[in-house]
């Protein structure tokens, strides 16, 4: 039965004490920059010191997520060079002859290259199959946008022209009414003037 990543890691790397305080406290954390295991207390201090607070610290059960090309075996202190396909963790040469004897192994460089090839094939497939369709959709969307903008601009222009025409009509009506009012005023004033002249002594 295959082991989980966490079970495989525990199986491969036996209990390790803290590298800083050198006590028997279990090294539950791992500093990627210092390549040291840390107990909970030292991890707390390590993450607050100005010189080390920027270091990448993870739980030891998450070591399989670290870049294994710079990882050393906690149990044997050697660079990891293999990947155990059964336990799904990186291991060193000494682990091969102990906890992982008989397990199917992969060279890490080969594994990295294999994953890189898979990723490159995926990218190539995306570029060949997906991107053209996306580019077509983008072009169609751009054309639809331009068409929409032209139609709205035309409607706006027509509204402005109609508004201008209405203003001209209103101005004409207002001028005519004003002229008529002035004519009525002048006519009425003449009537008043004539009446005044008749009543003069």
UniProtKB/TrEMBL annotation:
Q: Which Pfam families match?
A: zf-B_box (PF00643)
Q: Which GO terms describe its molecular function?
A: zinc ion binding
Coiled-coil zones: 138-176
The entry's keywords: Coiled coil, Metal-binding, Zinc, Zinc-finger
- Gene3D superfamilies recorded: Classic Zinc Finger
**Which part of the chain is the B box-type domain?**
13-60, 68-108
Provide the protein name. B box-type domain-containing protein
Which organism was this protein described from? Answer: Pinctada imbricata (Atlantic pearl-oyster)
